[in-house]
Write a structure and sequence with these properties.
The structure is a homodimer of 365-residue chains. Chain A is α/β, with parallel strands linked by helices. Chain A has helices spanning 6-9, 20-27, 46-55, 68-78, 91-102, 118-125, 143-153, 173-182, 237-244, 254-264, 267-290, 310-322, 346-361, and strands spanning 33-34, 85-88, 108-112, 129-133, 157-161, 188-192, 213-218, 231-234, 302-306, 325-326, 338-342. A 7-stranded mixed beta sheet of chain A has the order 2-8-7-6-5-3-4, sandwiched between helices. A two-stranded parallel ribbon of chain A has the order 1-10. Chain A is globular. The model of chain A has no long low-confidence stretch (mean pLDDT 97). The interface between A and B is large, with 85 and 85 residues.
Chain lengths: 365, 365
């Protein structure tokens, strides 16, 4: 009898996220207002769309396994060398590589309880020990507590999302820098900057291309290409060479590379997306206030709105889905009493607002 | 200091394949006749192109993590259930998952020396022990020798490509079935059927959806979507559930799923590609005969042509590249004296023929 490897056999069966397509099947819905996965409703830049459309007939060719042109352009954008850049099939892919490369089975990872969970998925998948630290009461990753654990445990890897998902909070550059400098020198900081494009560039970490720091970026959010699966890491050349030994060299869609490259040449579109996303956040803040709910100031393309209890938040998500509006909610305290809604277009925001007003009107406070 | 995990640190630095984009940079070429990676020069089906073009504006959405629609269509095609199908980012991705899931570090894998090398890449990457068996003198995987080793070693996994790459040979269904039945019951047969679409369906294995067999298929070859990165495995439901614990759930490009689904509805296009590929093979056989070279009858979209010695084959590949024609060659005896050329369009075939005639005319026999 063929048995899975014992380490794999021991992993409990899980599905990280239930996708909207499955929810639609289960609920018999033909359409859904997609506000659950922090996807960009503005899609890819027109320049990216044109470039991808023009290149579709050449999809018979494998993509460049070294992403030479894209890495050249990214190196110009980040004032570094192509040798500092690893391109992957989105940040999820890069995170898996980071865990596999830098955490041996039984090794230790420190993260925040309830933050973006795919890091946990990879940690479990590669047999790491996870230690999770609670958010501060206002939903900010608790740098002091993280640092305390890191100094005691000397974890192989510490994960921090900044801006954070699902809270939307942003930790100022100087605080992150001080935190990074204070970490044990045998701990790798895996810094998830998926939402960095929504932050003023002047407030972001300046590149530290050091061996114990991996910064991850994506084309999924401000660039509107989540479906393309393309992201990258900025780090020391040594780390890129380590990834080179284990990454899927032909894993990235050719057209994703084409679109990402063209996107980098359309700052005007990205700026418009960022501005429209700010309008969406403001609309959600106003809606929350109108409904007597608190909301968390967000530096991302989503906003958390307080439903007072976790049970009520779960019910609201379910009731919104029945009305054809798909959102998600944080899974762990103190954020689990919130719902999280992604920035939508104006009509999507209106649909969400109407549905939420209806749901709350029918629900005891 | 941050060190990679010891098992990863121990992996020698390698690049599985040098891509044509890098060769073009190194050689200062602006164009290349791409006949090196068994890509389809016919590209995706027109129906797939239309579907992908129409869906590009929705690339802001993640692809369905369960590939529900595509798996439904594949289940109909293969007369099985969606639960028997794992969709991955090409066969390379599926192979990595199979090694990771079913071969523990230090576990044993048996393969053929010189066959498709990405299996070896994953084996090394996940710390497996590789045992490679030579091809028979005519370049066919040596089932008898593979079986002998398997019975002695009880490997966790045995890899067989049928049709084989790089030889192009095809082992008849009854022989593969007998081989599979004779394998130890604790050995998983990983059957790479990337080129199965070029074989008469009646000559293929009927589905054995058993725990100790994983059949891998791709949209990269006859379907002309190598750049999309999408392939799948047919296997027992238990195995799909094992993969569900470790696969990258959001790893597949949304548009790749759209194109693959549309491709399945265009048998006429696929049949034309298969017929044109047969014409390309015939043209290469005729060219080889004209030049006094032997060739191997192929059941794929490529042909191996005998250059008499490995050194000469290597030189021919280099000289063709200088002339702007990119092919590859097998790396291990007995096939390393061959060059391997992919099926091209008629103009591509002509460019290859002219270049090869020129190269051989200047080269002592």
């Amino acid at each position: 009898m063929v048995r899975p490897a014992p380490a794999i056999d021991a992993i409990p069966a899980t599905t990280p996220f239930v996708g909207p397509e499955q929810l639609m099947r289960e609920c018999g819905l033909r359409e859904l207002v997609r506000l659950g996965a922090n996807e960009s409703p503005f899609g890819p830049s027109p320049k990216a769309l044109t470039a991808m459309r023009d290149e579709l007939p050449r999809l018979g060719w494998y993509g460049d396994p070294e992403s030479l042109d894209l890495r050249d352009a990214l190196a110009r954008k980040h004032a570094c060398e192509p040798a500092h850049i690893l391109v992957g099939s989105g940040i999820d892919d890069v995170m898996g590589l980071a865990v596999r490369a830098f955490v041996q089975p039984g090794g230790s990872i420190v993260t925040t309880r309830g933050t973006y969970p795919t890091l946990n998925y990879h940690a479990i998948g590669f047999g790491a020990r996870l230690t999770a630290v609670d958010y501060t009461p206002d939903g900010t990753p608790d740098l002091e507590a993280l640092l305390g654990i890191a100094r005691r445990e000397h974890p192989s890897l510490l994960y921090l999302a900044n801006p954070d998902n699902p809270s939307g909070r942003f930790i100022a550059r100087d605080d992150v820098t001080a935190f990074y400098r204070a970490l044990p020198h045998d701990t790798l900081l895996l810094l998830d900057e998926a939402y960095a494009d929504f932050v003023d560039p002047g407030e972001l970490l300046t590149p530290h291309l050091e061996e114990r720091l991996i910064r991850m970026r994506t084309f999924s959010k401000a660039y509107g290409m989540a479906g393309a699966r393309i992201g990258y890491a900025l780090t020391a050349e040594r780390n890129v060479q380590v990834f080179q030994k284990i990454r899927l060299h032909y894993g990235i869609n050719r057209n994703a590379q084409v679109g990402a490259l063209a996107s980098l040449g359309d700052d005007e579109f990205r700026d418009r997306v960022v501005a429209e996303t700010a309008r969406a956040r403001a609309a959600y803040y106003a809606l929350a206030a109108e409904l007597g709910c608190a909301s968390i100031e967000s530096f991302t393309n989503f906003v958390c709105i307080d439903m007072h209890t976790a049970e009520r938040a779960t019910r609201v998500v379910g009731e919104l889905l029945r009305r054809g509006v798909w959102i998600r909610k944080p899974g762990a305290p103190p954020l689990d009493r919130f719902i999280r809604v992604s920035a939508g277009t104006e009509p999507m925001r209106r649909a969400f607002a109407e549905a939420l007003r209806g749901v709350l009107a029918e629900m005891p406070a």
